[in-house]
Specification:
112 residues, seven-stranded mixed beta sheet, four-stranded antiparallel beta sheet, 11 strands
Length: 112
């Protein structure tokens, strides 16, 4: 079955960086657009970024544009989200989605 497993979250100070990973299995990874979505504490889901199947085209929410970079390694079935210049408002649970499935999420806390 389709599985998406995120990792890389943690506690980081404002201005710091984290790289999230999402390892996928159970589907043809290189055929699917993939997405990062986040949920801040007490708030709804917020779309963060998309990447097309080849990795050539990316899209970002205005709130993260210029700070976050989405990428993928189709040989490793892995999706990434490089997050720089983190702000407190980036705190939340980060999910990768694709092929109709969601991972369990990885928690990011930006706090001094």
């Amino acid at each position: 079955q389709v599985q998406l497993v995120e990792s890389g979250g943690g506690l980081v100070q404002p201005g710091g960086s984290l790289r999230l990973s999402c390892v996928a299995s159970g589907f043809t990874f290189s055929s699917y657009l993939l997405r990062w979505v986040r949920q801040a504490p007490g708030k709804g889901l917020e779309w963060v970024s998309d990447i097309d199947s080849s990795g050539d085209t990316t899209y970002y929410a205005d709130s993260v544009k210029g700070r976050f970079t989405i990428s993928r390694d189709n040989a490793k079935n892995t999706l990434y989200l490089q997050m720089n210049s983190l702000k407190s408002e980036d705190t939340g649970l980060y999910y990768c989605t694709g092929a109709g499935s969601w991972g369990q999420g990885t928690r990011v806390i930006v706090s001094s």
